[in-house]
Specification:
single chain; alpha+beta; Aminopeptidase; 8 strands; 32% helix; 32% strand; disordered C terminus
């Protein structure tokens, strides 16, 4: 089982996910806007528990590192993120399953979470590549990935059948070790230049 560290940022803290976080996650997870572009729909406490238990099983298998996202100023959980498809032999992972309660969309907290995760991934885990992917209609997510310097690699057509029966093509991006210093500088500049969200 992977030992997952707490990642401490300026405004947020990423804590290793446990089932003890479920009660706090239930307060923020049942907004349809969170799951609009994801191939899973979380509508009930049972859905949320199944989602968390699956992440923890994959952690135990050594392929996933799940965190909850904590807003430090209020000490409350506002979302979640993870590394998954972690391949130590190839020094690769995918960053995703990332969501925040819509109250904090556009507040710059996602950039800080990515800075924390990618710093840990490249500088502690020694990753050579971190992949990211998103729904073909999620143009905001694609723009954000390009903005931090992730390179678009292409798309997997007909990749997922969404919970509503529609079809998703997945647009893939990646950051490799050689690009990390520039990406890190971009993320640090974004984090420094943002003001905390109003309470």
């Amino acid at each position: 089982m992977i030992e997952i560290p707490v990642l401490e940022g300026t405004r947020i803290r990423l804590e290793p996910m446990t089932l003890e976080h479920l009660a706090s996650l239930e307060k923020v997870a049942f907004d349809d806007r969170i799951w609009r572009y994801m191939p899973v729909s979380i509508k009930t406490p049972a859905d949320l528990r199944e989602w968390a238990e699956k992440a923890l099983r994959l952690q135990e298998a050594g392929t996933t590192l799940p965190w909850v996202t904590v807003l430090k100023s209020e000490n409350r959980i506002i979302g979640s993120t993870r590394f998954f498809d972690f391949e130590p032999a190839h020094q690769t992972a995918e960053l995703g399953h990332t969501w925040l309660t819509p109250e904090f969309h556009g507040a710059g907290l996602n950039a800080e979470a990515k800075l924390l995760q990618l710093t840990y991934g490249f500088e502690q885990l020694g990753l050579r590549r971190v992949a990211l992917k998103t729904h073909h209609e999620n143009l905001q997510s694609q723009k954000a990935m390009r903005k931090i310097g992730a390179v678009e690699e292409g798309r997997f057509r007909n990749h997922y059948i969404m919970p509503d029966g529609s079809q998703r093509h997945s647009v893939w991006f990646s950051i490799i070790r050689e690009e990390w210093p520039q990406t890190k500088s971009r993320l640090e500049a974004r984090v420094r230049g943002l003001t905390p969200p109003s309470a």
